[in-house]
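Per reviewer request, we include the raw input and output of the structure prediction for the construct analysed in the revised manuscript.
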Amino acid sequence: MEIHNNIFIALVHYPIYNKKGDVVITSVTTLDIHDIARTARTYGIAKFYILTPLPAQKELVHRILNHWITGYGAEYNPTRREAFLNVAVAGSLAEITDDIKNITGKISKTITTDARKFPNSIDYNNLKVELTKSDIFLFLFGTGWGLERGIIDNADYRLAPIEGITDYNHLPVRGAIAIILDRLLGR
């Protein structure tokens, strides 16, 4: 299996907008952890981070990881264990970028994703070319009603949104991640 040692992903739970436009912390969901870990493993992602500053949410993630990596789950379902080996929880974006720098020796370039269009967005074909370079890339996937604007404005790249065949554009984040990774890394 090809591992993309230069590609990292993060599911961001803070800072995130709610439907009223307030900056909030969203809740970690167990389905997201399971499904995104399996998608990340399928597409050879170097590491999948879950970003939440809340101690109780971090503890939930650690309990799930421990169950599947060293607990009964590891024996019960070895392929699930394999998917969880490259999953980590972090309290901030700085913690993630520091970890990536420790792993790779390089500063990562950030790529934000959103259901909305932003000026200077990069399309999938052009980003696919960028990903073949020797740079390190960190994809930031938002929860709730999207990443806080400062994160988007400070990103190195803003990926064009996924567009379906209708005006409805509210994909679950785990579905969007699977589509994006397949478009960029799939055969």
